[in-house]
Design goal:
alpha/beta; 11 helices; binds serine; 3-stranded mixed beta sheet; 309 residues; UDP-galactose 4-epimerase, domain 1; globular; 2 domains; 7-stranded parallel beta sheet; 12 strands; Rossmann fold
Length: 309
């Protein structure tokens, strides 16, 4: 099999730079085109500026670089999205439609679309949330991702475009900073803990959310993208799960290692976003279809974060 030529959009984000280096390892750095709306510096791979809201620029980039596989990560996350709903819609949905249309026209072989627990809403069952369930998200980010999942399904059914997608939990990493998410507290808390500072949490102590260590998320992404087409029964987006915890659970686990660590809770507007999401996700379809299995639980996560920051 010849190596694919891969475009990553939004490569400067929290997931992007880690995914780019995993893709470079897998397919060779010369075959990876890492782009963002701003200039980025990532070692070895080809880098470029690409504004996904510019359809002509997207098509030209795909053509000029002979792209046949796309990981479309460019998006505004949940909390930041609320400060500019129309811009978030234009980037998240308009950008995705540009990628889908250009991919259809230029016959891109395979696409990855990151979805999220943000597609769930207050009417979704909160525990062990099923794959096929009620989706009435409250944030513009959630709406854009829910619609994005359905556009992916539409292009798959109508044009045979091979679109694959995961509903990521909150992603936690030590080497890349998060940007504008509701789950970001679970990264910020570690930075404060290792600096010996107290942490002020913007969520209530009992707010339980699904979370995942970055390495699991990257491996899930690569595994889904390598899976046999015939095995994939979900063409909206796969539920994906590793662990669930509340700020209190995480604080207690960190305090076990750093006894002097302290926390206060000052919930802000992000509390209502978190309250609209679910506590835990049933990912049995991912496990059945392409043998997904997480490797990291909360204890491993806490140790890795504290050891590496
Ligand atoms: N981590 C994301 C956010 O909080 C959820 O997809 O917005």
């Amino acid at each position: 099999m010849p190596k694919p030529t891969v475009l990553v959009t939004g490569a400067g984000g929290q997931l992007g730079s880690v995914l780019v280096s995993a893709l470079a390892k897998k397919h060779g750095p010369e075959n990876i085109c890492a782009t963002d709306v701003r200039e980025i510096h990532l070692p070895l791979v080809r880098t470029g500026i690409l504004d996904v809201t510019d359809k002509d620029a997207v098509s030209t980039y795909i053509k000029d670089n002979g792209i046949n596989r796309i990981y479309h990560l460019a998006a505004i996350l949940s909390a930041r999205g609320e400060s500019n709903p129309i811009l978030t819609w234009n980037i998240n949905t308009g950008g995705w439609l540009n990628i889908l249309e250009a991919s259809r026209e230029l016959k891109v072989e395979r696409l990855f679309f990151p979805s999220t627990i943000g597609v769930f809403g207050p009417t979704t069952p909160k525990k062990n949330t099923p794959q096929d369930t009620i989706l009435q998200p409250t944030t513009v980010y959630g709406i854009s991702k829910q619609i994005g999942e359905n556009w992916g399904l539409y292009y798959f059914n109508r044009y045979g475009l091979d679109v694959r997608s995961l509903r990521y939990p909150g992603l936690i990493s030590y080497d890349t900073p998060p940007g504008g998410g509701t789950t970001d507290y679970a990264i910020d808390i570690f930075h404060k803990a290792v600096k010996g500072e107290s942490f002020t949490c913007f969520l209530r102590e009992d707010t339980e959310l699904p979370m995942m260590y970055m390495d699991d998320a990257v491996r899930a992404t690569l595994e889904l993208m390598e899976a046999d087409k015939e095995k994939l029964s979900v063409r909206t987006s796969y539920n994906l799960s590793a662990m669930s915890f509340s700020p209190r659970d995480l604080f207690d686990a960190i305090k076990n290692r750093i006894p002097e660590f302290s926390i206060t809770y000052e919930p802000d507007f992000r509390q209502s976003i978190a309250d609209s999401w679910v506590n835990s996700v049933n990912d049995s379809r991912a496990r059945e279809d392409w043998a997904w299995k997480p490797e990291y639980g909360m204890e491993e996560l806490v140790n890795i974060m504290l050891d590496n920051l």
